[in-house]
Amino acid sequence: MKILIINGPNLNLLGKREPGIYGNSDFETYLATLRSAHPAVQIDYTQSNIEGEIIDAIQQSDGKYDGVLLNAGGYTHTSVAIADAIGAIATPVVEVHISCILAREDFRHISLVAPVCRGSIMGFGLDSYRLGLLSFLN
How many angstroms separate the CA atoms of 12 and 62, rounded? Predict the structure, then answer.
């Protein structure tokens, strides 16, 4: 099985940015742990602060991966273009968030990508990625 994780803006700052919300671990350390726990799964990873690069990664995943775990960060609430890219591919996408976006500021309560995703996982810290991965394995 091949899974692509796409992280959006500011997620390169995990471990430094608002640790009360996002924790103290950087993503690369967590990713190594996730890969070790699932050696039979090829887990590729990309992160970008640029909307167009995220769209390119989504489009390029089509037919190459069995699933995509997408944490679109702030673009979750603003990007019709990312939602359109997800809707245009056959590869299933699971929306992932470290924090519970429904427990945060009102503007974060709306996800433009959720309607075109297979499902959404939020609020479990970095473990949200593992839970998203399990959704593809099951």
Answer: 24
Q: Which range of residues forms the domain containing residue 35?
A: 2-137
Enter the pTM of the model.
0.93
Alpha carbon distance, N-terminus to C-terminus of the chain: 12
CB 112 within 8 A of CB 80: yes
Domain count of the fold of the chain: 1
Q: Give tens-digit pLDDT for 19-44.
A: 666 567 889 999 999 999 999 999 99
**What tokens were used for 1?**
């099985």
Beta-bridge partners for 56: none
| Residues with active-site annotation | 22, 97
- The helix or strand, by DSSP H or E, that contains position 2, with its residue range, turns out to be strand 2-7
Beta strands in 28-84 (DSSP E): 42-47, 67-71
Residue 27: which of 55, 8, 52, 51 has the closest Cα?
8
State the CB neighbour count (10 A cutoff) for residue 136: 18
Taking 70 as the threshold, does the pLDDT of residue 104 lie above it? yes
CATH number for 50: 3.40.50.9100
Q: Tokens 């500021």 belong to which residue?
A: 105
